[in-house]
Amino acid sequence: MLEDLKAKNAAWSRGKTEVDPQFFKRLENQQSPEYLWIGCSDSRVPANEIVGLDPGELFVHRNVANLAPPQDANYLSVLQFAVDVLKVRHVILCGHHGCGGVLATMEGGTQGPVDRWLANARDVLHRHQDEIDAQPDQAAKVNRLVEVNVMEQLRHLARLDTIQKAFAEKRELWLHGWVYDIRDGHIKTLLEIDADTDLDGMVRPDKVLV
Question: Is the pTM higher than 0.85?
Answer without folding.
Answer: yes
